[in-house]
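Exam review. A common question shows you a sequence with its structure tokens and asks you to describe the fold in words. Practice with the pair below. Do the first one on your own.
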Amino acid sequence: MGIEDIGRWLRDWPRGLSLDHRVIVRQSLQTCRAVFKAPHAVLAWEEREEPWLILASLSEDGFTWREAEPEPFLPLVDPALAESSFYDNDKAVSRHFLEAAGLQDVISAPIRGEFVQGRIFIAEPTHLRDDSLVMADIIALLVERSLDYAVAVRAATREAVRDERIRVARDLHDGLLQSFTGVVLQLETIHTLVDSQPAEARRMITDIEGVIMADQRELRSYVEQLRPRRRIDVPFDFHARMEELRSRFETQWGIGVAFEIETIDPLVAKSLGPETFRIIQEAVTNSAKHGAASHVRVRLSSGNDKMNIEVVDDGSGFPFHGRMTLAAIRESGVGPSMLAERVAALNGDLAVESSGSGARLEISVPLGFAGAT
């Protein structure tokens, strides 16, 4: 093989990075056979988070792929040669593996990626020269990078899906499910009033209808957010959402909520607005449900590229007295732990002061973190 041949197959190596393992592996094995004029090539590897050994084979009989228990085949080669490329007449390679793969007289090179570890085996090569092991190393490196990329993207995708599911579940719990709890409580009250105070019962039913319609709009918003299509960010209307929240807590929980909204940066992105609203909603819910507060004051302002939120109530406080930071709450699990996770997810900060006469929360969230422009 001359320098022109080497240049040719390097130029022919597939451009771009496929996310399909089988495409990557098949193309790699085709290259191995072509470069070494070999009838058979095999790639065997393990992925860091998977329990099996993957065996892919390409020969004149076609392409095969199977996932097998690793124990019968490992180690694939003599441990002394695990990090090296070599040409061997089968003595350095696991006899069980050779028989299972139908190989003999192989050139082999290691795959040592961050996510993928294994080896390439090129059987009965007819085109050998002094730099054949170098060529095997180059091919193995290209395969390693391609497979590592595909596995890393797949893992990141799974993580993103998991995080999104957690976010949606948390939003549903903090928003709609809490609202449904309030509706159930109101319906129980209506049941006791329907005969003795029918006018009051009808008024409460009208209020519940309004709450359900608002929840319907919110659920529709969730569905829209989950649609895989491009959306245009628009400023979030804090005033309207805060008024809706105030009315809901007054109706469902009998709590007076006062909002003080100072200048809100117009660059607050739509993606940050709902998250900030959820933080406020959960903080007020904690005051009502767990702190048994009768009055809550929420103050919002923005400055120095941050959204600042202060929530003060006259309830019974949290299960601790004194001041706790975000890090302390997350580490101990004491206090508003779910709220702390929300704030941390937005790269924000939180401090909580708690006593028997109420609680005070100081929250700040950077405006730019969620993509404000």
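Now try the second one, then compare your answer with the model answer below.
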Amino acid sequence: MVLDKSKRLAKADVLPLLRRGAAAVAAARIGLGATALAFPSIPARPWVGASADELGAEVFGRALGGRDIALGLGALAAAGQVSAAPRTTAAWYAAGALSDALDTAVTIAAWNRLPRVTRWLVAASAGGAAVAGAAGAVAALLSDRKPD
């Protein structure tokens, strides 16, 4: 019985941390999106290099900025609503995680054509955000379950 109680205690300690991590990623996503809307070459340059200053890259960067703002606001709104079902919060965190996982995948697919200096930073930050979002989604779902 003591072991079961310690398992519950560990779960009670870890799940809120995972959810806060996912919320932090959502907040950072809003900041990144706002930056991309206003100054699209700033977040794009580490990812695509000098071509970030071209018109097509600027338009695309602004579009991705809008995506990030929407995903971040949706996640934070769901997480902040007491009446929101944990599944809703999990869905928003998972949507951001999927977006970040796909960003990581396309970065890896283009690895040899990306700037050597920053490609690791881009892959690590997108991959880390994907992991944090997925962990937050799982934590949101687990926090909705009755104790074992």
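Model answer, second protein: The mean pLDDT is 90. The radius of gyration is 18 Å. Full marks require stating both points clearly.
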